[in-house]
Specification:
The protein has one helix spanning 24-47. By secondary structure, it is mainly α.
Amino acid sequence: MEARDMQPVIPMRKARKKRVGVDRSPYRRCNLVERCFNKFKNARRMAT
């Protein structure tokens, strides 16, 4: 990822030996967007 100038967004698992620091604010925004789309899908399912 560093070679492509990208930053990891998803946190690592606790069991992983090599820890990589992650900024939590982009992860929270990504999670918020995913939950919003899930709500839209569920509302569409109920409407049709």
